[in-house]
Amino acid sequence: MVSRRAIDVQSEESYMSLKRLLVAALAAVALHANAFVGNYDEGSFTYNSGKQFVVADVFNFQLTSPSSLRTTLEITKSNGLLGLGLFDAVDNSLIGSFFLAGPQGATTTRSFANLSTGSYYYGVLGGFLPKGSYTLHSSATAVPEPAALGLALLSVGALGLALRRKKSQQPV
Hints:
Blueprint: H1 4-31, E1 37-40, E2 44-48, E3 52-63, E4 67-88, E5 94-102, E6 107-115, E7 118-142, H2 146-169
Parallel strand pairs: 1-3
Antiparallel strand pairs: 2-7, 3-7, 4-5, 4-6, 4-7
Pfam families: PEP-CTERM
Protein name: Ice-binding protein C-terminal domain-containing protein
Transmembrane segments: 146-163
């Protein structure tokens, strides 16, 4: 009789070998994928991929001032599984990532806040069955300087004080 512990160990080993096989297969397929490399400066961009089985795209960009990014990924044709990562281009460190799996029309949005001036890139990896496509939209907005934020709060306070004074001077 086989013990329950032996079955658990055996199923865990099968899971790990299946996981390794899946990673190796994705890596092999990604080597043959068409890669897109694009550049953009601050503002926004939208990329619409063509119909394909495998996606391995890179989008390089520069931020010339501290910014926040709002990134939307949408599956536009077929069923797909996509992963997007935001990387620092200087040391290739991962800043953040998200995944999207679903049918045509599936959408997800992620914000990456308080990014400093510098070079970054998005990496998109995934696949479709049958051939499919996706849309990536990214927009950068400048992070307000602390002095500008303080000045805005001060002006709102002054406006409130002026309204209060005006209200107290009106006859009852």
